[in-house]
Amino acid sequence: METFHQVIEIAPRNGPRYQRVITIAGTDAAYTVLPSALLEMVGVNPEWQTGHAIPGHHRQNLPMAEVRIRIGNQKRTTVCVFGKSDGEPVLGSHTLAAFGLKANLATKSLVSVDLSP
Q: Taking Cα atoms as reference points, which of 81, 63, 74 lies closest to residue 98?
């Protein structure tokens, strides 16, 4: 699957300061996955754990939290998974839907979509 890089900014749910992050977009990931070390650095703490199917492994409980994400000039609070500390940040479809966006692999960009009620 082709992917592309997308710059986003993240902050704690109620935090005023954002950290720039280069993510991989265009994957099949449902949730945004950010390295746990990065999340902890900006002050995001795990809020709950949920089971996830990890490719090549059995089901695993991973910490999750709500974070503030900025894409362009829009800000949303969305769910994110604490990934491996050295893992690559991934922009998930749940976050994109919150912004009314989708990954367009042909143009390697995020595009607006019509949201159904």
A: 74
Closest Cα to residue 78, out of 92, 88, 60, 62? 92
- β-pairing, 48-53 vs 59-71, is antiparallel
What phi and psi values does residue 39 have, to the nearest 5 degrees?
-60, -45
Q: What is the pLDDT of residues 57-106, one digit of tens each?
A: 677 788 999 999 999 999 999 999 999 989 899 999 999 999 999 999 99
**Size (the chain), residues:** 117
48's CB contacts (< 8 A; 6+ apart) are: 63, 64, 65
Query: What type of residue sits at position 85?
Result: S
Q: What is the reported pTM?
A: 0.88
